[in-house]
Recover the amino acids of this structure.
């Protein structure tokens, strides 16, 4: 057994002065205590007993201190861009590879409400990019209206709106991305999600949102046709779903706040099934509810065409 002396730090225990000799016993750090109540150093047996006792006292504190030191390192390893990429996959309209039935309830501060009902079919063609076709059945003045969206990796997405009274479709240009979608508080840009897909993300920290631990992330869109200057997104750490998103313009004004109210896991994938988009400038909101959702990977690619959109 080898013992190597390291020094004699002094302290008090229970009002009695004690001297600790830092040592190594068989290359393991230890302390031998010389207590004022005992003449001379403790025996080796007692020394080992004291070493063990001191280790038990020191371990919790050391573990706590280690955890504190590791926290910044863990935060530094979080890839904010990767988190945002996963959050994009949680499209609240259900347009990323599914068959859905949903409705949107638009309401204002006066209590006026308007309800839209729709069905949608979609498929991913270059994940997270997707193709989707949406058909409205309510209200009466929107019955038969259809919408086709084909997301693209390069350039503007394809968007077509079918109006039954005109019996034809018209293309929605990129400059219309800031326009309201079907009179709701969602705009076309909220459906194509290009401002999130093409962006840089910065981790602002971690926050508790309700009972969930979240990452708070600032997203800065990179495309020149972006309609938002920045977005602040709170993403659940356990499943990468966005729980809250704030949308800002170039003047730094908060335009809208999107809040997730309900999520669902189906076939191993998480979906946002109920969300509210609140306008901060017009005192109104739109609640989006997915009543039925069936994940699909087998919907034929031929469905996503203008010709099919115009079939009533």
């Amino acid at each position: 057994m080898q013992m190597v002396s390291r020094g004699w730090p002094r302290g008090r225990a229970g009002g009695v002065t004690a001297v600790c000799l830092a040592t190594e016993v068989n290359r393991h750090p230890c302390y031998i205590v010389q207590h004022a109540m005992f003449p001379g150093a403790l025996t080796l047996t007692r020394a080992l007993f004291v070493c063990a006792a001191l280790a038990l006292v020191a371990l919790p504190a050391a573990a706590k201190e280690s955890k504190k030191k590791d926290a910044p390192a863990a935060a530094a390893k979080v890839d904010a861009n990767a988190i945002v990429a996963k959050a994009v996959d949680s499209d609240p309209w259900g347009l990323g590879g599914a068959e859905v039935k949903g409705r949107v309830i638009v309401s204002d501060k006066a209590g006026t409400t308007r309800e839209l009902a729709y069905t949608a079919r979609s498929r991913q063609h270059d994940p997270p990019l997707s193709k989707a076709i949406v058909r409205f059945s309510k209200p009466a003045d929107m019955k038969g209206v259809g919408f086709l969206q084909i997301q693209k990796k390069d350039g503007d997405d394809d968007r077509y709106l079918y109006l039954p009274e005109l019996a034809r479709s018209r293309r929605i240009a990129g400059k219309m991305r800031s326009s309201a979608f079907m009179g709701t508080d969602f705009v076309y840009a909220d459906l194509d999600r290009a401002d999130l897909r093409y962006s840089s993300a910065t981790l602002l920290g971690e926050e508790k949102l309700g009972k969930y631990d979240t990452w708070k992330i600032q997203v800065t869109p990179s495309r020149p046709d972006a309609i938002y200057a920045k977005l602040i997104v709170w993403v659940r750490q356990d499943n990468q779903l966005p729980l809250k998103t704030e949308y800002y313009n170039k003047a730094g004004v908060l335009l809208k706040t999107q809040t997730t109210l309900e999520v669902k896991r189906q076939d191993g994938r998480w979906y946002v099934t109920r969300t509210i988009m609140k306008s901060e400038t017009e005192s109104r909101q739109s609640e989006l509810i997915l009543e039925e959702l069936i994940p699909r990977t087998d919907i034929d690619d031929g469905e996503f065409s203008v010709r099919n959109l115009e079939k009533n």
About this structure: The chain has two domains: 3-77, 80-309. Residues 1-64, 66-72 have pLDDT under 50 and may be disordered. Helices lie at 44-77, 80-88, 188-192, 194-197, 306-309.
